[in-house]
Write a structure and sequence with these properties.
Layout lengths: L1 E7 L3 H12 L4 E5 L6 H6 L1 H19 L15 H25 L3 E4 L1 E6 L2 E5 L5 E11 L3 E3 L12 E2 L1 H4 L8 E5 L3 H13 L2 E6 L10 H13 L3 E4 L1 E8 L4 E7 L5 E6 L1 E4 L3 E3 L32 E3 L10 H15 L13 E3 L4 E6 L2 H7 L3 E7 L4 H6 L5 E7 L5 E8 L2 H13 L4 H5 L10 H10 L8
Parallel strand pairs: 1-2, 1-6, 2-3, 6-17, 8-15, 9-10, 9-15, 10-11
Antiparallel strand pairs: 4-5, 5-6, 7-16, 12-13, 13-14, 18-19, 19-22, 20-21, 21-22
Helix pairs in contact: 1-8, 3-4, 3-6
Length: 467
């Protein structure tokens, strides 16, 4: 069988690329090495983690807030096996949804490990030991990423785990050490922290969420401390060992020789992810990865081989599902002869803790480094009527605008539903709106989005109305 486009990898980037290519009239194949479609995001990433985040937030609200709301409960407890079952059901429903989309768009699905024989021949090694080859005019590499696991951390998938195993712990641990204060570590830490686990986070840098707005990372850390999470900033892990009872994590201060041990039931390794291009046969077509294992591409996301493209976590840029989706559409439309566009500066980043964190555009640090004049407006959630009504008082919205033109340069938020609120900022910034444009838009009252309007007012001649 000869295909116009073959996509290797069925995560959000891959399956969206396949759908868009099929919509544009191409004959499409998609290859997935695992038994289910959806990649890391649907199976062991975005979707299952959000299912557990929601479940744990419901429990935490019942434990901490329901009495204040006039709701009295007896014998409240965590049924972890049921929580995991619900998570698995959510995953199964989403995976079935992708299966349906492949059939609807007449995309041929192959299960097995795909690798290049040459630029137009892909070999598929199946689990039963057999192989099959298909011919294709174009190839889109969308194989995603895997957790980074240093050898001295002694990863065993039992007590020393990554996010994959953390999603299937069937009893609430008493203690957990998390290596890494980034998105994955904080999200999963907050899941178990809300359920009663004592969480200790070890982070090498001087703050959590490096790369996101500093004010937002400080605000989130305050909130996470309220659920009992402890932070060891400017520290590094030198060794992790395990026995039948649990784990011992040896920690060293970054700027000294002082060390100490942390003991826990589990150690979660969450120090980042690496591009997953293992045994892809790139050497057979003359593609070399860079020092971080990424596949180099040009402005069209095309590799050094004219018929081969790469998207998502295997190329430069943020490892975000929605970034991969945009790139999948971009490549499909490029192959079809269209002229699509992606503004990488306006791809939002989100952390699904509670409160949530979301940001788009430039941070203050980036603007200072670039020498761009700017002004800032902030507004706290505690001054919002809607936040007070829901008892979600933690957080703020920060608007950064150009000091001379007033154009929005960055919007950063911590608070209830900011993961959804950030879309308004993205839309406005796509059309190069000013802070005053936001300030003059009517925002429904009472809503959380009023904080965005008030922060924009604060950035516009300090005109905030409710502080």
């Amino acid at each position: 069988m000869k295909y116009d486009v073959t996509v290797i990898g069925s995560g959000p980037g891959g399956y969206v690329a396949a759908i868009r290519a099929a919509q544009l009239g191409m004959k499409v194949a998609i290859i997935e090495r695992y038994n289910t479609l959806g990649g890391t995001c649907l199976n062991v990433g975005c979707i299952p983690s959000k299912a557990l985040l929601d479940s744990s937030e419901h429990y935490h609200a019942a434990h901490e807030r329901f009495a204040t709301h006039g709701i009295e409960l007896k014998d409240l407890r965590v049924n972890m096996p049921q929580m995991i079952k619900r998570k698995n059901d959510v995953v199964e429903q989403n995976v079935k949804g992708v299966d349906f989309l492949m059939k609807k768009n007449k995309i041929d699905v192959f299960h097995g490990h795909g690798s290049f024989v040459d630029a137009n021949t892909i070999q598929i090694a199946k689990q039963d030991g057999s192989t099959e080859s298909i011919q294709t005019s174009k190839v889109i590499i969308a194989t995603g990423s895997k957790p980074i696991v240093p050898a001295n951390f002694n990863y065993d998938k039992k007590r020393i785990i990554t996010s994959t195993e953390a999603l299937n712990i069937e009893s609430v641990p008493k203690r957990m050490v998390i290596i890494g204060g980034g998105v994955i570590g904080l999200e999963l830490g907050s899941v178990f922290g809300r359920l009663g686990t004592a969480i200790e986070v070890v982070e090498y840098l001087d703050r959590i969420l490096p790369g996101m707005d500093t004010d937002c990372s400080k605000e989130l850390m305050k909130s996470l401390k309220k659920i009992g999470m402890k932070f060891h900033l400017r520290h590094m892990v030198t060794n992790v060992t395990t026995d039948k009872k649990g784990v011992k994590v040896t920690v060293q201060e970054r700027d000294s020789d002082r060390t100490f041990d942390l003991e826990a039931d589990y150690c979660l390794i969450a120090i980042g992810r690496r591009p997953y291009t293992d045994k892809l046969g790139l050497e057979n077509i003359g593609i070399q990865t860079d020092e971080k294992g990424r596949i180099p591409v040009n402005e069209h996301l095309e590799t050094v081989v004219p018929s081969v493209y790469a998207i998502g976590d295997v190329i430069v840029g943020a490892m975000l599902a929605h970034k991969a989706e945009e790139e999948g559409v971009f490549v499909a439309e490029t192959i079809a002869g269209q002229h699509p566009h992606i503004n990488y500066n306006l791809i939002p980043g989100v952390v699904y803790t509670w409160p949530e964190v979301a940001g788009v555009g430039h941070t203050e640090e980036q603007l200072k480094e670039a020498g761009i004049p700017y002004k800032v407006g902030k507004f706290p959630f505690k001054a919002l009527g809607r936040a007070r009504a829901s008892m979600d008082l933690d957080g703020l919205v920060k608007v950064i605008a150009h000091k001379e033109t007033d154009e929005l340069l960055g919007v950063h938020m911590v608070g209830a539903r900011t993961a959804d609120m950030i879309a308004e900022a993205v839309a406005l910034m796509e059309f190069r709106a000013s802070a005053e444009d936001v300030a003059r838009m009517s925002h429904a009252h009472p809503t959380y989005t009023e904080a965005f309007k008030e922060a924009a007012l604060a950035a516009t001649d300090n005109r905030a109305l409710h502080i």
